[in-house]
Specification:
Layout: H1 2-11, H2 16-28, H3 56-78, E1 87-90, H4 96-102, H5 115-125, E2 129-137, E3 141-148, E4 151-157, E5 160-165, E6 170-174, E7 182-185, H6 200-214, E8 219-224, E9 230-235, E10 240-244, H7 249-263, E11 270-272, E12 280-281
Length: 282
């Protein structure tokens, strides 16, 4: 009886309800049941950005403080008496008129005064100055250094006389004739103070020619006609000597010396020395 019951139990078909329940449980269970567990590390919290819990009033106060500092610096450097120009130093004695002109910048802020503007103003009002340098000396001093133009010739045009320096710049108008070579412009071109009238080569030629020519003849003045490449020397006797300013002074004077030694009595109007190796005369 017992054996039969066991066989009967084993031969009984499976219950469909139990079978469906197993399937449902299998479907609901996760497929990745062997996935490793998650890990929590308390030290990671220290690396997270901290939220700023300071009240907004501290941010406002900090902003106001920075603004006050900036305004204080602006006042200190640009409006306070500390950086107001009080002294003007020059490396040599200036004419009274220039000193009075420079006095106009006293009382101004040293940072707001531009050195280039001071230099340009001096050159415009005092063209006899050259190589002007303006240096700031903190907190309240301006230093001015300069050189003066060297007079070389007197340029006459339209009945007016101008001093010209070694660079050919007319920098001052004068009354009458000074002790410099006088060059008359027969074209009477207008002259602007501070502008170049002739080339440096022309100035060098005239300043070299004058003392050497005076050893042979008496000079009244020099004249320029169509171009400064040619120069006429008007002698006291009225005779005219014509020179080429692009050629050597010594070469032309040697030709003149030889000519005067042989034909001095044959000339009445001019002696032309402009062509090398030849002398034309009339």
């Amino acid at each position: 009886m017992v054996v039969w019951a066991k066989l009967r139990l084993m031969s009984e078909p499976p219950d469909p309800a139990k079978r469906d329940l197993g399937r449902e449980m299998f479907k609901k269970s996760p497929r990745n049941i062997f996935k490793p567990p998650k890990v929590f590390n308390p030290k990671d919290l220290s690396n997270k950005p901290q939220t700023n819990n300071k009240p907004i009033i501290f941010k406002i106060l900090k902003l106001i403080f920075l603004l006050l500092v900036i305004l204080s610096l602006i006042y200190l450097f640009f409006y306070s008496p500390l950086f107001t120009i009080k002294n003007i130093i020059v490396d040599k004695k200036l004419p009274t008129s220039i000193n009075e002109h420079l006095a106009n910048i006293k009382g101004k802020n040293i940072f707001l005064v531009r050195s280039s503007e001071i230099k340009a103003d001096l050159l415009k009002n005092f063209p006899e100055l050259v190589d002007i340098s303006v240096i700031r000396g903190l907190p309240d001093t301006i230093k001015v250094s300069y050189n003066e133009r060297t007079p070389k010739i007197i340029w006459q045009s339209s009945g007016r006389y101008y001093i010209v320096d070694e660079n050919g710049v007319a920098f001052k108008e004068i009354q009458g004739i000074a002790d410099f070579p006088l060059v008359k412009d027969n074209n009477d071109l207008a002259i602007n103070i501070g502008e170049q009238v002739v080339s440096t080569n022309f100035i060098n030629f005239v300043t070299e020619l004058r003392p050497k020519l005076k050893e042979q003849v008496e000079i009244n003045r020099f004249e320029v006609n169509e171009t400064t490449f040619q120069l006429d020397a008007i002698l006291v006797s009225g005779l005219i000597l014509k020179f080429d300013t692009t050629r050597s002074v010594d070469s032309q004077l040697n030709d003149l010396k030889k000519f005067l030694a042989d034909r001095s009595n044959e000339t009445q109007e001019y002696i032309d020395l402009r062509v090398e190796g030849k002398v034309f005369y009339k």
